[in-house]
Amino acid sequence: MVSSCTGAIITSLFMTPFDVVKVRLQAQQRAELSRTCFLYCNGLMDHLCKCAPTICTSHPDQNPWYNRPVPVQLNGTVDAFVKISRQEGIQSLWSGLSPTLIVAVPNTVIYFTTYEHLRTFLHRHLPTTLGGDTTPSSLSSGLAGGLARVWAVTVVSPFELVRTKMQASNISYGEVSKVLQSQVTNNGLVSLWRGWVPTVLRDVPFSVLYWLTYEQQKIFMNQQQQPSFQFTLYAGAVSGGIAGTLTLPLDVIKTHRQIALGEQIFSDSGSGSKSGSTYELLEHIYRRQGVRGLFSGVVPRLAKVMPACAIMISSYEYAKKFFRQRRQQEQ
């Protein structure tokens, strides 16, 4: 748990700006972006924010969580870095880091801890008839990664929804219980998990591909027991790059769905545009923009995902090795 917590903090500090740029490039695809809300991400977590071209000086308490300047056209990764820094200040590349860590760190702890236990359990019980002696290890790792992600998303989803409403209504932490009670009363208990499906559709395939690839590399390079720091950096980057590229269309869909959800939350009438099913959204984007639209933001996504995965897994494995050696010395 301490190892995963350490990795999450280090990763968020270094890799936040790349995800900010990636989501901004994806968000440009929607014409409705400037009407109600926009999606902002700082590396660990997505933020749905009201659009506010001007600041309400007479009622400063009514200002939204984030005051976005008039949007500009972003032309590529480097151009996005320059324009965001100039227009909004370089600190905006790390916007929302504090509230993110409140939810993201427990989410990471739940995810990695669950993965370790599930991987051990599945490795013992997965049949060996599927292949050679090394096959069950990578299969159990991929399956454990997917199941762990489902569990982590399920646990954290209600807190994500509350956090979004806190941003929308400018409420304090002390009023969280009232928000939860109102949400359940008006929309039912299931409404606390709104947005669960698109999150799972993006994160679960990524987790399966990532752990399957990572563990297979450990087997191939004979690094199963105590992988070296250099190996974890390389293997984490490669695994993250493969998983990030193959799941990018699902990430684009999740961005669109979150913006549609924000339009419903932030609008006065409580109704927003219908985003349609995942297949309908994929077909719509492909019909209008082709394959390029489905892989919008691939460069900043890989520029963030590959080093982020490398930093996360190397910090995690290094911390585990440290605690393992310390326990052996005590014994």
TrEMBL record:
Keyword annotations: Membrane, Mitochondrion, Mitochondrion inner membrane, Repeat, Transmembrane, Transmembrane helix, Transport
Compartments, record wording: Mitochondrion inner membrane
GO BP annotations, alphabetical order: mitochondrial transmembrane transport
GO CC annotation terms, alphabetical: mitochondrial inner membrane
InterPro entries associated with the record: MCP_dom_sf (IPR023395), MCP_transmembrane (IPR018108), Mtm1-like (IPR045315)
Solcar repeats: from-to residues: 1-121, 136-220, 227-322
Matching Pfam families: Mito_carr
Membrane topology note: Multi-pass membrane protein
Listed Gene3D superfamilies: Mitochondrial carrier domain
Chief location of this protein within or outside the cell: mitochondrion
PANTHER family noted in UniProt: FI19922P1-RELATED
Family, similarity comment: Belongs to the mitochondrial carrier (TC 2.A.29) family.
Protein name: Solute carrier family 25 member 40
Higher taxonomy: Eukaryota, Metazoa, Ecdysozoa, Arthropoda, Crustacea
